[in-house]
Every structure is written in C-alpha cells, then in structure tokens.
Amino acid sequence: MNCQPGDLAFIVHSDFPENIGRIVRVVSWEGVYRLLSGRTLNLWNIEAQGSPLRGKWIQSGVISLEYKSMAPDEDLRPIRPAPELLPAPPVAVTA
After folding, report:
1. Concatenated DSSP letters for 29-46?
2. Nearest to residue 71, comparing CAs of 56, 92, 83, 81?
C-alpha cells in the first residue's frame, strides 16, 4: 500500500477534478471494498486539510462537501521526505 495511518497525502485521482492535488491526512484503514465489477479497493479514512472535499454518497448518489471521507489507497500519494534528507541513524560509541 502507498499510505499508512498518520501520513499526509496528495489526492492523485478523483471523480471530482477539484479534489486532485488536495492534501489529506490518512486517519485509519477502513478495509477492502469489492466493486460489482469484482475489482477490490483498499480504503482509507481520510480528513481534508483546509477546505472540505467534494464527494458522492455511494448509497444515495448525493453529492456533498465533507471534511471526513474515504479514499482508495491507489488514489493517494504520501508526502514523506526523501530518504537522503532524513537524519543519519545514531552511531554507537564504544570505549
């Protein structure tokens, strides 16, 4: 999976173009959702940072603005420092 709980992530795919590029916090793993086509999605609970996200309720089709939502892992890219920018691990000193 791309993300883990606590990550900040960019939305890289959405049915709503205004959500693409938005930053969200990955809160927790929701589970696996199986589409009628047989395709499976690993879903995360997410929280919008800044303004709410546009979304559509699966059961009713109602479009709404929400701060809390769910997103498939494949639609998110975590924001993490490049490994070369991380501090070096401490070196053990022996006497």
Report:
1. EEEEEE-TTS-EEEEEEE
2. 56
pLDDT for residue 24 is more than 90: yes
Are residues 8 and 78 in contact, defined by beta-carbon separation less than 8 angstroms?
yes
The pTM of the full predicted model, rounded to 2 decimals, is 0.80
- Indicate the SS3 state at residue 26: strand
Cα–Cα distance, 73 to 26 (Å, whole number): 10
| Domains of the chain, earliest start first | 1-53+71-79 (2.30.30)
Tell me the pLDDT tens digit for each residue of 68-93. 999 999 999 999 877 777 777 788 77
For 74, the token pair is 């494949």
8 Å CB contact between 38 and 32? no
